[in-house]
Task: structure prediction
Amino acid sequence: MQTLTALVFDDFETLDLFGPIELFGSLPNEFRIQFASMKGGIIHNHHGVALQTVAVAELAHQTNILLVVGGKGTRPLINDSKFLQTLTTLADNADWVLSVCTGSALLAKAGILDHKRATSNKRAWQWVTEQSDQVDWIKQARWIVDGKFYTSSGVTAGMDMALGFIADRQGRDSAKEVANYTEYRWQQDSRLDDFYNC
Amino acid sequence: MQTLTALVFDDFETLDLFGPIELFGSLPNEFRIQFASMKGGIIHNHHGVALQTVAVAELAHQTNILLVVGGKGTRPLINDSKFLQTLTTLADNADWVLSVCTGSALLAKAGILDHKRATSNKRAWQWVTEQSDQVDWIKQARWIVDGKFYTSSGVTAGMDMALGFIADRQGRDSAKEVANYTEYRWQQDSRLDDFYNC
Result:
């Protein structure tokens, strides 16, 4: 059983989080999910979502897989040194670190992606890549794998990445079964990026 | 401004809800979202999600669009007459009623889909269709529109349906813009069903 910790914050992007959660959650014998935030309690976003979370310091299970989501809420966090320090500790202690959309801006700003290949949302590309010149940013990609880091492009790209991660760990048949269960047309090729020029 | 009320219950399917919420939420000048449950408070599901909701009786805004999701939690609800009565009242008063996955089983059992064409999840097809023989069930469809009712197939089919609904109301360009923003490869053809035989 692997524990996935989803790190959220106010004004996270709804589907950056719940797309991967649905897919990992479809394999309850393989993945356990916990929702974390800096202080715990209810986290709100701009879609009216109010999600109960546990404080990072009070998590019940050690993190195997860290999921870092994006959204408007990333903008103030790149100047929040306490948040970035917590993110660094969580990432250092995780076996795998996955980011969706502008979540990679947070990892980059914290220095966690130094000398790694990574991608992000195309609509926020300039802002994201300005957070660090130590990252080998790859614009045309659905998702990128470098060592223990999986970074995806915008929003629903995180779902294709999550299935890619499941395929890498549990096998392609397992990922296909999850895609079929959720009636999801999985884009299996991480290099194919329909939104490069959108 | 149209108000979308998402009706949830314990053990709802995560992405049945949050896929459409992301897409409607991407047009904040067009759609306002409120999360409702029978009694209000925190609703839990099998993916560890704990979502704050408002009691149906205490909703701040009148419902234009009712979103009924699916998931394991639908199983006990088909025997809950108070829930089905509330669902009927909500559906009667809404301009549009959208269901994802086994959400259509609830609508069917309540008699709301009598003499309407509708679809549902392929994995739960037999159980869903047993809930009513007064519905014209269409198995091979990504989603079905009949009058004010939009019913979708399983989980991520709800996202294609939500974009279809947005296209029908706000125009296809608006739906495409939402799909591009979320980097979602929208399946625009409601009749194409890759999961008919899965």
